[in-house]
């Protein structure tokens, strides 16, 4: 069984959002076209409380983009984004959400970030994604969304570790590229771990 896994196609990661990914809106028509090729679609949402400690606003004297130690883990500080129940946390209006069978919420613990759709960044808590996919008999994942060098990378690597066959739909993803070259490095890292890099046109019905 295969499934399409959409990562964080939320307003705050799109142009005009508080943590906008360049060209993030350009993946939405591609994703919408892919939806028709899958019987099972699951999506993740960043779902942060207002006081989330990954936000630079929670650390006096620190700026967006700085890295700190947060409870023993390295943490890049981000703008406030995807705050629970905010407009920024909603899926894009252009995304055909009726095709989504299930939504996984991540990053709701204020003390730890959660890039991966499967676990928080310390792997202390699972999001429920793996259990849901297992219950559906899924063995193969096609991944698309935002952003290539963070949430997509960590989700794809965890999926490989959990035993899924993973295909990344490269043209249906965009990255932050906080440091130039981050996106290419992420693609190479995923490929080295067994993720197959494909284009949306390669997906069979």
UniProtKB/TrEMBL annotation:
Keywords: Hydrolase, Metal-binding, Pyridine nucleotide biosynthesis. It holds the Pfam family Isochorismatase. InterPro entries: Isochorismatase-like_dom, Isochorismatase-like_sf, Isochorismatase_Nicotinamidase. Residues 3-202 form the Isochorismatase-like domain. Its EC number is 3.5.1.19. Pathway: Cofactor biosynthesis; nicotinate biosynthesis; nicotinate from nicotinamide: step 1/1. This is Nicotinamidase. One of its GO terms (molecular function) is nicotinamidase activity. The keyword tRNA-binding does not apply. GO terms for biological process: pyridine nucleotide biosynthetic process. Belongs to the isochorismatase family. It comes from the Bacteria.
